[in-house]
Every structure is written in C-alpha cells, then in structure tokens.
Hints:
Elements lengths: L1 H27 L21 H8 L1 H4 L14 H6 L2 H10 L19 H15 L20 H11 L1 H4 L14 H6 L2 H10 L20 H13 L11
Helix pairs in contact: 2-6, 5-6, 7-11, 10-11
Amino acid sequence: MTSVKLNSRSLKLLLAIASLAAVLLAGCDSLPGRPTQADLPLRPSDVTDFATLYGENCAGCHGADGKSGAAIAMNNPVYLAIIDDASMRRVIANGSPGTAMPPFAQSAGGSLTDHQIDLLIAGIRKSWTGARGAAEGAPPYSSSTAGDSSRGAQVYATSCQSCHGPDGKGGTAGSVVDASYLSLVSNQYLRTIVIAGRPDVGHPDWKNDVRGQPLTSEQVSDVVAWLASKRPAPALAQSN
C-alpha cells in the first residue's frame, strides 16, 4: 500500500511540474521584445513585393528607378513596346550566356521562382510602360535573318559615326567597338539598343538618327552584324 501511495504522489508531482512548464513556455510568447510572426523575415522565395524584387535583383544594372543604369533602362517605352512577355521572361529566367546578364530562375541556378519572375514582368510594365504608339512602325525585337556586315558598315557611316566616330572608337559619344564592351553584350542587346535607343544617355532610337529617316529591320540587322564583326574572338583554352 505504501508503494502505491508513493507512486500516486510521484505522478501528481510530475503532472504539476508538467503543467508549470507548459505555463512558463506559453508565457514566453508574450515576453517583452519577443518578435511576432509578422516581424520574422520572409524567406527569399516568399517575397512578392515588386519594389523589393526589383531592387534586389534588377536595380544594380537597370537603375533604381528603371533608368540610368549600366544596362538598358526599364522605363524605355520603345523597349517595353517591342519586347513581349515571353521574351522578357526568357531573358530574366535564363539570362544571356557570355554576357553580364545572369539567369535568375531557380531552374537555371538563380534565386527567383516562376511566380516572382511573373511579378517582376507585371511590375515593370505597370510602373514604366510609356505612351501608346511609342514604338509604332518599329522593327521587331528580334530577327531570324542574319545581317550583312558590309552593308552594316554603310548604315553605321550614315547613321552612327557622327557620334561614335568614323571607326566606332568614339567621338562625342563613346566607343562601340571596344573589345570589353562587345564581349559583355549579345547581338540581341545591340539590336535592342539600336531600335529602342538609350534616351537616358542621349542615344536616339531607330527613327531619330541623324538622317531623320527611320531604320528598317534589315538595316538594324546589318549594323548589328557590323558591330558583331568587331567583337574579339573568344580565347582558346590552353592545354598544360
């Protein structure tokens, strides 16, 4: 009988200790200074705020306000008119191999989910799409027709050299044949710049060159081919 009583007392003591521990643990949630769930940082894949996504992933190259960055401005109305969502998604997701544009999709080694890429595209268009008709008559964003560099030399001479110099090495504007520059940009990027321009740095678009005559899609392809011909050949791997 004595052992039964002792076991009963021990059980009551254990229950009392367990109850006290539960009360103490519950009280910890209300301690002063303890962060609430809302105070805890989001996992990177859970971020859905456009300003945060753009600021952390795009602003470094395309500018904090969609302009005045090293790369083409996101507030360029011609650019936003000629590029469709599928093309923009492809560039963001997969990057441009061999250039300064890295892939951002998780499936390509980046950090963004498909949903976050969709939010970026929608946010860019909502924030910066310009006046309707800004790119009316513009050449298409891309072309499957290869340009001719010899014809491109003539296009350059009539439309570009007054700013970039007769040899492309710079005039009132900078060099467009600099090896470092051409090694960091794709032909598609060059085409985009020729069509959409860089208003933020004074570069005209396809219809506002010095001739006062809009460039055709073929002429854009040709001048891009001429520029590409100035790109240094990739260095061959050296064996030991």
